[in-house]
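Worked example (supplementary).
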Amino acid sequence: MMRTTPFHPRLAELSQTQMWGNWSGYLSAVRYDLSSKHEYFGVRNAAGFFDTSPLHKYWIRGRDAELFCSFVFARDVRTLKPGRAQYTIWCDDAGFIMEDGVLFRFSADEFMLTAAEPNFGFLTKLSSLYDVEIVDATEDYASLALQGPRSRDIFEVLTPDISVLRYFGFTETKIANTPVIISRTGFSGDLGYEVMIPTADALRVLDAILEAGHPHGIRPYGDEALGMTRIEAGLPLIGVEFNSSRYAWTAEDRFTPDELGLGWLLKGIEDDSRPFIGREAILRERVDGSSRWRTVGITVAWSDFYELFESRGHLAVPDELPVAWESMLYNANGTRIGYATSFMYSPILQCHIGIARVKPKYAEKGTDIYLEQTVNHEYINVRATVTTLPFYNPERKTA
Amino acid sequence: MSDLSSYDAIVIGGGHNGLTNAAYLAKAGKKVLVLEQRHLVGGAAITEELRPGYQFTTFSYALSLLRPEIIQELDLVRHGFMPLLMRSHFAPMENGDYFLLGPDAGLNRREIARHSKADVDGMERFEHDTARVRQFIRPLFDSIPPNLFSDDPADAEKMAWLLKHLGTGDKKVIHDTVRLLTGSISDFCDDYLESDIIKATICSAACVGIKLGPMSPGSGMNWLYLSMGEHDGVGGSWSFHKGGNGGFTQVLARAATAYGAEIRLDSHVDHLITEKGEVKGVALRDGTEFRAQTVVSSLDPRRTFLEIADPRELPADLVETIQRFRFQGVASKVNFALDGLPEYPALSGRTDQYLGFINIAPTVEYMERAYDAAKYGGYSEHPYIDGCIQSLVDPDMAPPGKHVMSCFVMYTPYELKGSTWQAERENMADRVQATLQGFFPNFNDLVLQREVVSPDIIEARTGLSEGNIYAGEFFPHQMYFFRPAPGYSDYRTPIRGYYQCGSGTHPGGCVIGAPGRLASKEVLKDLSGAKP
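After joint prediction of all chains, the assembly is encoded as:
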């Protein structure tokens, strides 16, 4: 029997489709509306909420908590202040990415990690040499992300404390007399918040959020709309942009932070001596210039996409749902130079966009490359242009 | 000259086409000045806060046919472009039933079957056949029409391309194209459908903005034109813009400004300054003059050729053609601030039917009779209303729990027989409100404020002659090669350096941007010396 999240009774009422997928053994909405595009616009235009309860949540507590985190995670946590969170990754000794997650710092010696995949064993095993305790809090909290330009207005009604929250800040506060943790984080590339609620009180808090959100057009969104917003936000997704190096079968399925476009997380590692897993390999990669890939954005002009289909007698009907496969990329001579890991039609940019891995010399913004598409049962290349990520980056996200 | 400021190009009119044109010219590195007569840009695409917190889309109310290239080429998303796709299409019926389409094709089939089982596949055939027509004519729509009457080899080449394209068409597609271009939408629908409410829903889209009824030959062409929209890549789909259509023109203004264009408000251009058949600049009503070798008018053909330019400097045949160019606006707007949402008894408690157009066009005959009045100089007793409650989709449009409803109203002819709009305006709005009250029993109780925009007001505020929302009627003889006049469909004019880029040029009206964009290509071609 599939499990349901603490929000499920309300989510099932809100769902017009009853289309559920499986996220870590929990029912997770594919979409609530008849069309996920309208959920997507709900996020971009007003506010949408996404049930993130299946996310794994781990307390990391103890005298050595900072030392432990600074060793396990590739991004330096030593400068992370209490009340702040950071997006982070962890690597293997060869400098390949294992996974990513968000690390919250509650105090000098208390952190929480949220991650899409289970890591309790990994963290516990590493913790044996440190004065630190790992506690799996996954089922202690229900969690949801409220994203979009009206998300702040909605939470301000419920708890004025959040009005001062800066990007990646978080606070412990109350909604409907229930203690909650609200962070200004999310996966949509827009202004947004995530809230963790003690499981037993989850429905009551959700109802308060729905009531406060009603005049602001709040609506739930599912996995399809989440996928659309995160591609526009240029955020990599495990299982799509990368897989854990631990479970990869070949070197082709392992990627370093620089290759995945996450080199910015490692700012300053050349200048300090902080030991962390993968450090030596990553430094060597930088010295040797041995990165195989660069992660870039690609766009296909609407006129080119249109021409691709219409000149062959088809109607150009773009689909905003991210395609579930990789699409090959070529240079003008027809030589393979990479592949798009995510590809979709962006309803707001009104053209196709993708997250792609290309050989470093093709990574410069403005470079023309060619994307393989299938038309009339044939592979045909269409021109694409390299650009920087993210595709959509409103000022309000960080303002 | 009292003001010696000099520009590479001056664009007259800060409507969406003028701004689009200016943005493209500025992006190409030209020093551009936009002169707008009013205190705000946008022309007929503006949003006004007529009541604190309530945003009214005074004139145009939806993004219809905006060309996707413009969004990308002008980087509009960076400047706040935010289309809001319509989710539903709702048509109440006189017997209390309704026809409601939503985003799911399977559910739509069931809704169609509720009215006619035969129309389920009838509708799919209709949609497929008309999609093929759209595919066939789109290359013409998105390119500059060749000059039929020119002896320039470049035009001959374009004509050869056009003839070749027409020659590649499928027999049925070409026949359907001609049937739509010349026939009535009602006849065309009869070939596919039997349910009157479904036919009426399609026919209503053919009646927007033109002085024709659904049974009039020519209404097919308007339907085809208005179905050329492809919001979000979906043929025929329309959207709103965040903050109303004024939100969209503000985006365009930011883009144009970011590329370096200068926008001067409260600057009513009086006339063109020419010397020996060449443009030298423009003069404002207050006497201020600006110099430029290139002036682009985004105004309608009557103003472009007969008012801004001196018609005595133009060929007599052009002047004659423009003088008889048909405007005859027939559309009005009645906009409401509402205290809540209208209740439709058959869908009591539901509001999801209001997430797109609310179409008061219950039968084909209802619309034809609404049109009949206009033929004889009257306005419809029972008007056709294309309504939308944008605040339900976009919370920025009204305070929480409150709403704004835009109602596009047909038919209200510019020239009334035996009366004036000054006298009839509120009566017309009363009929609109009574019609809405007939379908939504709580409507009158909801109305907090009403704004009435009759054709004379459209003309006075936007400058659109006779209040024609398309800057000139959509008749076959006023389209493509002939828009606005035979031989002048390539955005140039007989005055060297003087161009047109408004909706009175190819392809035509709606918030489309294509005239502004295509005209900029010709202006830039000339400025680069490619062609005199």
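Two points are worth noting when inspecting this output. The mean pLDDT of chain A is 96. The radius of gyration of chain A is 21 Å.
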